[in-house]
Amino acid sequence: MTATAPREGQLWSRCGGCATLLYRKRLRRNLDVCPECGAHARVDAPERLLQLVDPGSFTALPDRPAEVDPIGFVDLLPYPHRLTAARAGTGLAEAVVCGTATVGRHPCVLAVMDFRFLGGSLGCVVGELITLAAERALTDRIPLVLVTASGGARMQEGALSLMQMATVSQAIAALREAGLLTVSVLTDPTYGGVAASFATNTDVVLAESGARMGFAGPRVIRQVTGRDLPEGFQTADFLLRHGQVDMVVPRHALRGRLVALFAAARAVRRSASRPAVPRQGPSPLVARPAGGAIAATTPGGDAWQTVRLARHPGRPTTLDYLETAFDGFVELHGDRLGADCPAVVGGLARLDGRPVMVIGHQKGHTTAELVGRNFGMASPAGHRKALRLMRLAARLGLPVVTLVDTPGADPGVSAEEQGQAAAIAENILALTVLPTPVVAVITGEGGSGGALALAVADRVLMLQHAVYSVISPEGCAAILWPDRGAAPQAARALRLTAPDLCRLGIVDDVVPEPTPAAHHDPEAAAGALREAVLAHLLPLLDMPPATLVRRRRQRFRRFGAARLGARAGAR
Length: 571
Description:
This protein is an alpha/beta fold and 571 residues long. The chain is built from 23 helices and 18 strands.
């Protein structure tokens, strides 16, 4: 049972771990850790800061991005009403508290998430605040500490919440490049898009005793696999045994561990001084290529019908496109760590005579093919194979084309044991700095972090009847509506179609499909995909690598709340 902190004003509390009745003041003196069984109750962000930083040293960052409701999401309640209730219930403006402080007299920047606020979900404002915290650490040349507590990306902001995984990751990448220490402290719980991005792509990953972390939550895994979960699954000790965290630290020792890490980082810091990086606001919107006008003329249609078309078993797969839109494909196998995931295929090919590296999800058409390819749901080995091929392309000077068609990453027990969240996070981080052109095409389903792991690109294209979303309509309906029968309504609320995402700026161009859909004329669909990729790839080929990386970062930085708020104000 998960231990939870008792409400203020209570004299006695019952431990969620051993059910012992405890005197509240004694429990608070013990940092909300049960003295009988050691269960760590969840603590809120203000309390966490009191436990970690030097007294009186915390100063909140002044940045307060504009409030956003980017897709006008409504389930049983309008999204703004849920935000108002969360603010009233927590006393916080959002699900993260950011600021500067000293820990053992070492200056640092902290971003501390609070699970009480809409499950600590990662939305545009949260992503903006954490990114601004990272940029402040870069400006001041001091370490960044992230304390995570989250159920994942915020459904009510659709695919824009998914983009925050890349936005924050590239801010972490900038700190890496500057030689500045980044530390994440995993607390209970840390799941979904947070686990698969900044929670696991820092230099050092600490897990508080009793923390749980994974890409997919236990309930989802049970539903998908029909299996009982191993004892202690996804707990801090499980993560340590499977090599996914650096250490497990009891709450009373966290502050001391941070002090030791800061001292070590200061001792080994390069003696050569580097010029301070000027602090910058969000980058301006990068202009879309002229082809983006296709989106305005793309026929609309019901979002749920589009979901069904995107999932049609006859829809062309990555291997189909490699046979028709590309030439001379030579498949490369394996992650070089002991596995070859069949849900991801990749290798060398030619596009209009130019060598390229093509990587994509592979589903299949028949039941046997779908099962054999795990329905296009990549394991950690699949993401690591993709990462190996991306890095090989960069060494060879080849552009990368990715074809995205997955309901999401593999949610199985073995995938969690092998580090699914960290594998996705590493791909996102690597793509933000890959010094070669990257064009991504959403060809069918673009599901959550499993899709984003191949879609942090210079140009993102989307077939007319493809979908791209932070969560499946069925999953969204199961959480926010009374039953899964509301999936069609959730599909409309999520704004997951190509025209929707083009209007939001997530997608650069919509690739038209033959009437009525790609599976009715695969050859024509392949021809359209080929021409669209060439049109967007050719202007990138002569661009210097540093310019590519800078503009790619600008692309994802623009999804922050400041830019979205400015756009809403302009309307």
